[in-house]
Amino acid sequence: MISGRVLVGQGPEELKELVAEFGEPGFRADQLIKWIYRPVAAIEEMSNLPIGLRERLARETIYHPCSTVTIRHSRDGTRKYLFMLQDGELIESVYIPEANRSTVCISSQVGCKMGCTFCATGTMGFVRHLTAGEIVDQVLQVILDVGSRPSNVVYMGMGEPLENYEQLIRSIRILNASWGINIGIRQITVSTCGLVPGIRRLGKEGLGLTLAVSLHAADDKKRRRIMPIARAYSLDELLDALHEYAARTKRRITIEYALMSGFNDSRDDARQLTDLLRGLLCHVNLIPVNPIPGGLHQKPRDSQVVRFENWLRRGGLEVSIRKERGADIEAACGQLRGQWEEI
Ligand code: SAH
Ligand code: SF4
């Protein structure tokens, strides 16, 4: 599928092997890895490598597996990227600057097989997993465009990261490594629709990252209507895994709850959610749903969102409302790719 070796995604050991194979001394691997994750745009910019080695690398390897197709700029500073992979598949990432931090939101798969009804990625189906290199390169491409490293990375773009477990872990290690992009582990968030075995496995890795769980309903029947994964794992099983995760990692879990008008935003819904989460080390993030073309769900009015927030707060939960960013460039999950394909 991908011809040649891809440099982004490789660690120190693999690069040592590569330079040895090229007949170069070991220290070239250290020089090379610094350039790869610095990053630069092209191999010829790796100025302390001999020209012969640069030429051979350019011939026999691929540096960046992602190339930029379009970048859309929002008035609020948010940028949305559409990247093409070596096999022509398209993925998207978002850059979100804020006063004292900046976040890159990255994809972990092309498409997604989880089929959540409110999600644009879910409606397009699953194409393939991303490699660790393709995951990490999204961040490198944003750094090249913006000119600085982000403080935070969230796996909230296309795809279900825990379904692509090995490559997910590999990519997190590269993002976090001092030889890699050097993003603090606490500044990395993995968002899942609730794959219970994956959550348990992640808890045992001892990584200290932030786990976000897309809950969206506090009642099994309701959750099954919008998230097919809820048929595989009940809320009881999910909550069990979350309690175990919090106990093991001592990290507060983010609960994502997309508010859908008339579906999950009532007083009763708030009460059920409060009961479900009581005693869990967590923070609830309320997201007014971003309606997708042909979708059934609409955003509640702002006043209803605030009312819902207050109900949860009075119930003892820690809660915040996610500020909408990049609304003028359709920075929600899966939307840019969809538009591109319609052209
Ligand atoms: N597959 C993972 C991560 C990618 S989705 C997951 O589901 O958690 C990232 C977040 O965006 C999830 O919380 C998801 O439920 C939410 N999301 C997807 N479509 C949305 C929409 N139309 N409006 C609001 N949030 C949405
Ligand atoms: Fe996949 Fe997450 Fe979208 Fe569900 S919300 S379809 S799990 S990307």
Question: Can you list the strand order of the major beta sheet?
Answer: 3-4-5-6-9-10-11-12-13-14
Number of strands: 14
Q: How many angstroms does the end-to-end distance come to?
A: 26 Å
Helix content: 25-40%
CATH topology tier name of the largest domain: TIM Barrel
Q: In CATH's first tier, which class of the largest domain applies?
A: Alpha Beta
Q: Give the biggest sheet.
A: 10 strands, mixed
Bound molecules: S-adenosyl-L-homocysteine, iron/sulfur cluster
> Which CATH-level-2 architecture of the largest domain?
Alpha-Beta Barrel
Q: What is the overall pLDDT average?
A: 94
Q: CATH H level of the largest domain: which superfamily?
A: Aldolase class I
Q: Could you tell me the radius of gyration in angstroms?
A: 21 Å
User: Could you state the order of secondary-structure elements as H and E?
Assistant: EHHHEEEEEEHEHEHEHEHHEHEHEH
Give an overview of the whole structure:
- With 343 residues, the chain is of the alpha/beta class.
- It has two domains: 5-62, DNA polymerase, domain 1, CATH 1.10.150.530; 66-342, Aldolase class I (TIM Barrel, Alpha-Beta Barrel), CATH 3.20.20.
- 36% of the residues lie in helices and 20% in strands.
- Helix 1 crosses helix 2 (27-36).
- It is elongated and about 70 Å long.
- Iron/sulfur cluster binds next to helix 4.
- Iron/sulfur cluster (SF4) binds next to helix 4.
